[in-house]
Amino acid sequence: MALTPRAAGPWHNAGVVRILLVEDEPSLREGVVDLLTGDGHQVIACADGLSAVEVGLREVFELVLLDLMLPKLDGMEVCRRLRAARPGLPILMLTARGSEDDKVRGLTEGADDYVTKPFSARELLARVRALGRRAPASETLDELTLDGVHLDLLRMAVSRQGQTAALTPREVGILRWLYRHRERVVPRSELLEQVFGQRGDLQTRAVDMAIAVLRKKVEPDPALPRIIISVKGAGYAWGALDKPGEGAALQGPHGP
Questions:
Q1: Predicted local confidence at residue 186, as pLDDT
Q2: What is the CB-side half-sphere exposure of residue 176 using CA atoms within 13 A?
Q3: In this predicted structure, what is the pLDDT of residue 160?
Q4: Is 241 left (phi over 0), alpha (psi -120 to 50) or beta?
Q5: Which of 27, 76, 163, 174 is most enclosed, with most CB atoms within 10 A?
Q6: What is the per-residue pLDDT for 99?
Q7: What is the CATH code for 143-249?
Q8: Is there a cis peptide before residue 225, judged by omega within 30 degrees of 0?
Q9: Residue 85 in contact with residue 191, Cβ under 8 Å?
Q10: How far, CA to CA in Å, does 143 sit from each of 139, 160, 215?
Q11: Nearest CA to 23 among 42, 51, 60, 2?
Q12: If we measure between CA atoms, which residue out of 184, 159, 156 comes closest to residue 171?
């Protein structure tokens, strides 16, 4: 499907929307990117479901354009995971003509609207403007300084005592997920599903190992963590916002 970007005119969008586009078909993906950037928007494109979840948890977007038929992780599951992490993030699904069941299921999983392929440039730009206006300003952790540690998740970096260390996309995803759900304990199985893209019942120490490495980067004292707290037998919790002394009962040097 060929989409031609338009210059400023009656359909030019004065409000820039930061968009995550998830589409595995190269020509359509490139056409939509050209259309949206030509209309003044900022677009990050992913070609598979796993990378979409990783990028969607790591960065801040105002709208997601999501194809359903994706490699590695299907669009329904991508929608579910992004919706769980960011309830206010608008999601526009791209569906095939006649796939009524997919439309109903997509709306049930949390999509806000859908467009049917093949769609016109005019229709897509109208939907983008309408949904982009509904996006919340920001509901996730982007930048924070605590206990002498500066987290800059947009730049994927952490600074402490004059030293800067790079964070991996997965480490950023862990921090974002724990912060987003900071009012509760996050089970290891949930991190496996939502950040690692694995089955929650998988028998692995991957989460514990990743958090052990992450603590060495972000904790002033990894042996006495105050940011990523272990809750024995339950999972992990965001501890940076605890009142003084409250986190000490939960934290420990080892995983749960």
A1: 92
A2: 30
A3: 85
A4: alpha
A5: 174
A6: 63
A7: 1.10.10.10
A8: no
A9: no
A10: 12, 14, 17
A11: 51
A12: 156
pLDDT score at 133: 66
Distance between CA atoms of residues 44 and 179, nearest Å: 23
Of the candidates 40, 88, 36, 86, the residue with the CA atom closest to the CA atom of residue 65:
36
One-character DSSP codes across 120-142: -HHHHHHHHHHHHTT--S--S--
d(CA 206, CA 187): 13
Residues carrying CATH 1.10.10.10, the chain: 143-249
Q: What are the tokens at 41? A: 């928007």
Homologous superfamily of the 18-132 domain (CATH): Response regulator (3.40.50.2300)
First to last CA, the chain: 50
Q: What is the mean pLDDT of each run of 10 residues along the chain (256 residues)?
A: 37 66 94 91 93 86 91 90 79 76 69 85 88 59 79 86 87 85 89 79 89 93 91 87 37 38
CA-closest candidate to residue 247, choices 235, 234, 229: 229
